Amino acid sequence: MLSKKFKIKALTGVFLSLALLFIYKEIYTLLFAVFLFYFFILYGITRDSEKYKYSNFTRRSKTLSRICLFFMLILIIRLFQVQVVDHKEYENMLIKQVEATYSIIGNRGKILDYRGKPLAYNSNIYTIAIDPTRVHGFEAAMDALEDIDKNHIKIGYKELKKNLASLAESKKYYKIIAKDVEEDKKEEIEALIKEKYKLKHNEIFFQKKSNREYYKKEIFSYLVGLTGYTQKSEDSKTGIFGVERGYDEYLRSRKITKKDIFTRSRFMKLPTASDELEISANGKNVYLTVDYFLQYILNEEVKKQYDNTKSEMGLGLVMDPNTGRLLASSIFTRSHQKNLKNQIIQSQYEPGSTFKPLIVAAAMEEGLISQNDTFDVGDGKIVRHRHTIRESSRHTKGILSTEEVLKKSSNVGMVLISDRFNNATFEKYLEDFGLGHKTNVDLPGELKPYMQHYSKWDGLKKNNMAFGQGIALTPIQLATAFSSVINGGILYQPYVVDRVAGDDGVVVRRNTPKVVRRVVSPKVSESMRTMLEHVVFDGTGKNAAIDGYRIGGKTGTAQISSPGGYLNGEYLASFIGFFPANNPQYLMLFMFLKPQADIYYNKFGGAVAAPVFKEVAKRIIKYNNILPGDVEYLGDFEMKVPEYISSEPMVEMPDLLGKGAREVLKMLGELGIEVEISGTGLVESQWPEKGTSLEKINKVKIHLK
Q: pLDDT confidence of 215, banded at 50, 70, 90?
């Protein structure tokens, strides 16, 4: 019989051999089993010598306990395998049973005006669908459908009930029962399903669809743009025009795919589900520089004149000349392509006389002319390179000063000014005014100005461009260049978006005024403001004048080019103006293409476009409560003395009641008396009273109403 020591040594040897083998093979379950059985057998060997000391009952009990222990060891080994060795595999099996993947699709960002009024936003509509295999035979679901049909929206319950059995038998898991359900109705039905009928297994479910809505689309569509489907966008809409396209990378929503642990019904998260940082799938909101109220005013006045003159196209824009911010823009056209084209940046026109101030400013900056220089325009025509250039008015003759060239809008005078440039210098200033390149306004589709290099010019090119022919610009390019003439000489890059922010208000992008370059000196700019103010005071732009306010501007009446020449009797009537003239805060440009009128001169810019400037400016003044406190006598005006002013010094206060502010300033200006004006309109009251001696009066107060 083998001794106890031999058995233990043999057992230990076998255990070590198997342990080394299983470690080498990385079979850790069997290694654990061998370890347990080694001690189990070792315990049995050490207790064998005592078996004869106990009774038969005790020996049987010990044998049974060893058998039970053996099976417990088997169970422990299995648990070790599941919990330790193969735990990853079983964990993945569990996750597959309870984990669900779902997607969150956000809304496209809103487009708002500067004050936060939504101009483009989203409205959600829903499709209601059922799972026929779950609804059929489920009384609560059928009752819910009947309730929906009777009390909420018509879904054709009776017909649906007839077909439900066949749909369920054919394993149809999806059946639409209603489309285009609005948000409030969806919430009613959802509450009914969950709270009253306790449906939790997607028997009835909703699918969201987001619609893009536009406020006052007829007013803002050219600027805000629209969305649509493209090849790249696949099944989701993307911006295809205007700000919608230019800022699409910020506006577009995101699709976030998430995983979480749910109950078997997929209806409720398990309490063990991990919470994650909430990330918004919504697009960012874009705030424009546009003011809705200014836009409304501009739109109404442009539309009125567009209709009155039966023009082919009418447009207007309002800009801050000191920053390049576009405050409002309005377009009306009879073109069928109007919804796919923004004429402010995508149509080019020969600007005509509104271009003349740029050339005058350039000549003054270069030192070629001064404000007091004179030009002999003769009988109103001049020949250059065998081509006769005429004045638009037969009354424009004789010797004109630089200021009068602008006031009378003299074409011949501009030719004489352009003669003082060489071609290279002339082109340099056009480039400086930004007319050789796009303005880079933050809207897609801007056209580059039509201008050839001076090496390709014929002999007449420079002369023609001096009065606005032979060069084609977009309205935004003309307004941007003109701003640099009157704002102190700085060219700014125009922009229409103020900032981009998330739903939480955090700004992710902010556009600020961007200086491109200095074009003319502050001194030249000041002289240009003065001369352009005189154009409105008693020149071609007098229809833009507003009593009590300082207005500057320039009219334009450009011929319309066509194959083989220019259209006979058809014009682009325009006016570009600014106020207050001494410190411009608003610049406005108006253009009307082919206005119709019985009288020839009523097609010109002074008759068509200048009055629109006046009406818009008056409404802006009222809207912003701008008082005429900055009115002062313009001593450098060459004014004719009215009949009611004596050549002798005035010694008594005249009767001013019923007169306009400008008339009052003319009457009192020469006396060196300060005039304080309040209100708008005509004089309602005055101080001192009529007949009072003015010998010791230094200040006169009047109130307009």
A: confident
